[in-house]
Amino acid sequence: MVVIPARAGIHSLLKRMEKEIHMKSFKERVDRGDILISDGAMGTYLQAKGLKPGECMESWCVSHPNVVKGIHEDYIAAGSDLVETNSFGGTGYKLKSYGLADKVRELNQAAVALAKQAMAGKGYVAASVGPTGHIVEDEGGDVTPQDLYKAFKEQVVVLEEGGADALCIETMASLSEAVQAIKAAKENTKLPVICTFTFEASARGFRTMMGVTPERAAREAVAAGADIVGANCGNGIVNMIEITRQMRAAQPNTPILISANAGMPVLEGEKTVFKETPEFMASKVNDLIKAGAQIIGGCCGTTPDHIAAMARVAKAARQVDSQRSTANNEKRGSAG
Ligand SMILES: [Zn+2]
């Protein structure tokens, strides 16, 4: 027997289907060249909400779920098209340092669920995957590439099951580690994979802590399977413009995600402060887009105010672009 739902039931079901059909996937939006706004800091925001030094940030997904969800909601209200889950330190290696190695599934599941609840289908959830804190043997460390692969696999499988739209491997310094994370993601999930590195300005130019240039990071991340590359943390927005240029030169066709800090941290008494204002960061967004950035967010020290100011500029740029392409199409139409 076929059970026919009540009229209202059909209506809401159809409405939901319609919404899902109209909502393009994250990858489709990126592939057609849309400028997208990511979110701002999670760690420094959680600290402002009471996270103690030395406390496991990811455990707040379970101990303070409303705070984590509230942070996502603040960024969504500010204009974020995608938010990143509170799962940066969600590998077994990282959680082990807090005695939580057996919580990989629970914490990563909770992280995705909170971001999805906050987003409520209006945008995308990128699941954050940070470094393990271990260095591979051939770079002088104590773990094998296979060990890292296994740890990343354990995390990304849960993040996909939870319903993330993309994986964001971020704050990478080691190419070996980034490559293992990308491979674990590509070989064990169907999700689009973003990989961003953290560079430091040095006398020899921009390098990660392990000595990798933006060009090489972009090239090798793409060779390993990354769909989107980029940079996060470690720099204010001005340096990120040059880093974007260098990545763009190495990978002319790969979408680039940039999340700058609100400047470099400055110690004032016992407090660490980040001094770039929302207005200052927003004033550089057009240059960042011109250099090649397509997805723009913020890292340490950025707040919903920073995201709102940057989103206003980026969305104006998005509008100008779409007007231009509509005008071009009309011109082409009338000429042809
Ligand atoms: Zn950061």
Task: Describe this entry's structure for a reader.
The protein is of the alpha/beta class. The chain is built from 14 helices and twelve strands. It has an eight-stranded parallel sheet. A two-stranded antiparallel ribbon has the order 6-7. α11 links the parallel β8 and β9 (256-260). α5 packs across α14, α7 packs across α8 and α8 crosses α9. The mean pLDDT is 92. The site of zinc ion has 4 residues, from loops.
Biggest sheet features: 8 strands, parallel
| Mean pLDDT across residues | 92
Ions, cofactors and other ligands present here are: zinc ion
User: How helical, in percent, are the residues?
Assistant: 40-55%
Look at the helices and sheets and give the structural class: alpha/beta
- CA radius of gyration is 20 Å
Strand portion? 15-25%
Global morphology: globular
How many alpha or pi helices?
14
Series of H and E elements: HHEHHHEHHEHEHEEEHEHEEEHHEH
Low-confidence runs of at least 5 consecutive residues: none
Distance between the termini: 56 Å
Oligomer: single chain
Spatial sequence of strands, sheet with the most strands: 1-12-9-8-5-4-3-2
What order do the helices and strands come in, and which of them pair?
Layout: H1 7-22, H2 26-31, E1 36-37, H3 43-48, H4 60-63, H5 65-78, E2 82-84, H6 92-96, H7 104-119, E3 124-129, H8 145-162, E4 166-172, H9 175-188, E5 193-197, E6 200-202, E7 205-207, H10 214-224, E8 228-232, H11 237-250, E9 256-260, E10 266-268, E11 271-273, H12 278-283, H13 285-291, E12 293-298, H14 304-335
Parallel strand pairs: 1-12, 2-3, 3-4, 4-5, 5-8, 8-9, 9-12
Antiparallel strand pairs: 6-7, 10-11
Helix pairs in contact: 5-7, 5-14, 7-8, 8-9, 9-10, 10-11, 11-13
This protein binds zinc ion.
